[in-house]
Amino acid sequence: MRMCKRKMWKISGGALAFLLLLTVSVMICGGSAQAAGRPVTIRSCLIAGGDVLCNVTAGSVPSSDDGKYYIYANEVFEDGPVGDVVAIVEAGSDVTASFPVNYNTADSNLSRKFLVAVKRGGEMMQVSDEHYITNPEANAAFTTGRMNRGIKGILPEVTAIATGELTDLGVQQVVYNIYLDEICAAPGESGTISFDYNGRTYYFSNGRITHYDQMVKGFNNLGIQVTMVLLNKGGTAGSEDLVHPLARGGAECPSYALNVEESEGVEHLKAVSAFLGQHYSGKAGNGQIDNWILGNEVNARTSWWYMDSDSLDVNVSAYVKAFRIFYNELKSMNANVQVYNSIDQEWGRKSNPGSFLAKEYLDQFNYYINREGNIDWGLSYHPYNSPLYDPYAWNGPAVWVKQSVSTPYITMQNIDVLINYMHQSKFLNPSGQVRSISLAEIGYTSFFGDDNQEASVAYGYLKAASLPDVDAFMLFRLKDDAHEMESKLNLGITNLDGSHKPAYDIYKQLGTANEGAVKERVSEIIGMDIDEMIRDNIVWTRSGDGVVQ
Length: 549
Prior knowledge:
Elements: E1 5-6, H1 13-29, E2 40-48, E3 51-58, E4 68-74, E5 84-90, E6 94-100, E7 113-120, E8 123-126, E9 131-132, E10 152-154, H2 160-163, H3 165-169, E11 173-179, H4 180-183, E12 184-185, E13 192-197, E14 200-205, H5 206-221, E15 225-231, E16 251-252, H6 263-279, E17 291-294, H7 312-331, E18 338-343, H8 358-372, E19 378-381, E20 395-397, H9 415-422, E21 437-442, H10 450-465, E22 470-475, H11 482-485, H12 502-509, H13 515-526, H14 530-535, E23 540-542
Parallel strand pairs: 10-11, 10-22, 11-15, 15-17, 17-18, 18-19, 19-21, 20-23, 21-22
Antiparallel strand pairs: 1-16, 2-3, 3-6, 4-5, 4-7, 7-8, 7-9, 12-14, 13-14
Helix pairs in contact: 6-7, 7-8, 10-12, 10-13
């Protein structure tokens, strides 16, 4: 939730040209989201053996010079019939085009998007929307068994592996950040790992990768499932091409939008994704990462996923392209990984004008995914209290927490609003099931009293545990952070000196045979039986704006 610091922005000639072209495109077409309604539909693009099978249908076969459909394979930044023609078939109302995946070659089609064109008046005309491969797992080298143990998780200190605190707490999951700019290295740097992919050689920092290897294996050895958040600060010699042109030089931010507009950046993203998927498949001796989250609170544009554009469509379109690359490349290495997007709790109200509403971002993301080929993406949601330092998870401000889809914020009190929203048919995964929902970041302050933190932690966990669609409850964080404490966000369940707060022992007992005693303690603090409150979905709210004195 941190704000980026604004800097003077200098645009290179290439970036300026791209921005002008983008502006003209949006003015003319109203954004790429308006391109639907073409006469031909690509029903599916599926890997079968070493080939891609694209099923193409048309209610009325479009006229053409030669009665042929031309199947184009475009990179994510290409629009229209400008990529490679990978197949030519007789035009018809229901036909299937076949062409090679060309996996791990310079002509790989794994993460490209496909479209149908016809030749009319000697020129190629696009007659379908774009469509991606939606079963990259069919190409996977590994199908590693997932370490699903339960929903109880935390953002840990790495030292907690050795201290035994993670085992003591009984956590079943951890979440951590990996910075692409830190792990990527430039050619010629010392101490690198080389990785050959799609006909090129890429380099990674041996020191940073070894650090993550030891950490991931340490978690795994404790029987703990790992979720990794992919962030990109940019700026290093080995990662400059990963930063989106509209994110360069504009602001200091914890993470920048990824480069899906230039060939070098796109190819690098493919290689990074494939490397991580292979390296942490659990089959290479480096540890196992089951879950990947692309970015953090990506709807918070100026805080966490910077792009210098306030257009929702421009931002979501760029994010979806990056998501497609990471999803297809990761799952082509390990079929069983889950890949999540990430949005914050500001469902219907923006505290920061530089952000997008979580609901509108989610809707637009889902629109693009459905239009270009539905995949089994997961939702990472952060249902913090509003305001963030509000100490009462069970009794939020009535002005911010409502039991309707128009609620300004979705917290643990009204998390069922999100769950019900995700039950809509348009949000279901390709198998018709509700998607995996990970509450990958949620924390409660002790600034206003240890008892409030105790009750909030218990309420949040027990509410999550009562919802079968929730696959993770990641408490943020194990240890207090001095910078966050300046804003009353004493979110750790241990103090800065490592001593345990009362909430530590509460969290330790949750999900165990001793949970009953925790419920008694929490019910006393709240003033109502916690089981009854959660079972009957009793939602207390209070007047005012939530400011606690």
